[in-house]
Fold this sequence. Notes:
Elements: E1 2-3, E2 7-15, E3 19-26, E4 32-38, E5 43-44, E6 49-50, H1 51-62, E7 74-82, E8 85-93, E9 95-98, H2 99-106, H3 111-130, E10 133-134, E11 143-146, E12 152-154, E13 161-162, H4 199-215, H5 230-239, H6 249-259, H7 269-282
Amino acid sequence: MKIDNRYEVSGKLGHGAFSKVYSATDIITGGEVAIKIDLSNIQSGKRRKPLAEYEAAVLQEIHAKGRVRGVPRLFWNGKITTKSGEYPAIIIDRLGQDLENVLEFRKKLSLTEAAKIGISLLDILKKIHKSGFIHRDLKPANIMLGFEDNNVYIADFGLSKRFVNSSNKHIPFCDNKSGVTGTMRYCSTYTHFGVESSRRDDMQSLLFIVVYLTNAELPWQSKNIKKGNVGSVKSKCVFDGSLTKNMNPHLHRMNLNIKNIQFSEEPNYNFLRTCLENIVAEN
């Protein structure tokens, strides 16, 4: 199977709840790419586009002023016809394993390893935010290792959202949104209570991931906690500091900083990066 007379499909890489991913070769450059076929029939974004079409638009905007390292590039988007029908699809950089797969073998990482990944994620998020977007679905399954390099990548921008309008003005605060945006385990405390997402939400998810990579669990994963109480438990752990109180002091300082970020405030990326760098330097 060949797409756009250029991309030769070579095999299946995997699948998620709403998509299938295949490997392919760019017959012009010889480079390896990934084809993501959207099976969700989910509409996303303000103008309610199919999920893959919306993700393509987000990737185009993020890379509009030049390649953003750590974010997959978009090479093609359109519709692919299969035996079961016609589906939206995108062709992007082929990436390596995601952190969820790594943890299946490693169970957990050292604090130094987790901090190094945290630094990479923070640098990528700073660039994503600079382009006017927030990710809103950070989790180990969406953090990928490079296929042909040693870089860390953030993938899956189907839930991403602009936090500024065309005039570069921050979106307004609201606290009456329905449902949880993102993945229950890693989404911010605010989204559990219907609060509009902003840059601080990505920072909280980043913190949760670093803690999870180190401890192999988060406090709100307990079987004794009912699904409806996850938000309350999560908020208590973050805002009383207990999430990181008994961990590395630099990680605890990171938690204390993140919990105080206001809705429209720009995170102090340099301070947070220094916290993570100090962990690496001292371990």
